[in-house]
Amino acid sequence: MTHPVLDDLQRRMSNTRKEIEAEMEAQLAEQRERFRYTLHRGKVRFERDMRALQRRYRVGLLKYVSRARLGYVLSAPIIYGLIVPLAFLDLSVTIYQHVCFRIYGIPLVRRGDHVVVDRHHLAYLNGLEKLNCVYCGYANGVISFVREVAGRTEQFWCPIKHARRNAGPHDHAHRFFDFGDAEAYRSGLADLRKDWNA
């Protein structure tokens, strides 16, 4: 069953998302010009004088660590301890999608669209700050990648809305069948399993 008001809101939200993405691309282009860097095969290249300017703002590692709060230092092993389950999750989901998505006919999720690690190119960061930025880029990217793989899996196997609203549903959820609408589920499942253009 369709819901004209919700369908209209979803369409407008999709258009707004496209506008936001276009604006973000324009801002990135402006940022590249302002801070004088280019992207070459995914690698950041700053102009020489801009790198020199950035280096003047770098806080040395010893100074950085000596000024750190004790709680920050003591919590570091907890934060970095998550690298093992994150890496295992990354590997597991990568293998899962390469095997199962090919069997199901689901388009593969491009991992590189989600896992972006580039802040280590910033000369104003010291080694520890760069490591932190690499870790955060990787961790958040893996979570984003896994969420998209899970969303596509849900669209294929169980595209039914929940009985109650959940916080932050993935991008595929609005297309799912209403909770309790057996007729729409049975009649539309095959088509939804082939429609990845939302």
Offer a quick outline of the entry.
The protein has 198 residues and is mainly alpha-helical. The chain has 7 helices and 2 strands, in the order H-E-E-H-H-H-H-H-H. It has helices at residues 4-34, 48-55, 61-66, 70-81, 83-104, 127-157, 182-192; strands at residues 37-40, 43-46.
Note the run of SSEs as H and E: HEEHHHHHH
- Strand arrangement in the largest pleated sheet: 1-2
Helical residues, percent = 55-70%
DSSP summary: helix tally:
7
Low-confidence stretches: none
Let me know the largest β-sheet: 2 strands, antiparallel
The geometry reads as elongated
Strand count: 2
The overall pLDDT, averaged over residues, is: 92
- The Cα radius of gyration reads 22 Å
Structural class per helix/strand content? mainly alpha
Query: What is the beta-strand fraction?
Result: under 5%
Spatial gap, N to C terminus: 18 Å
Keywords: Membrane, Transmembrane, Transmembrane helix
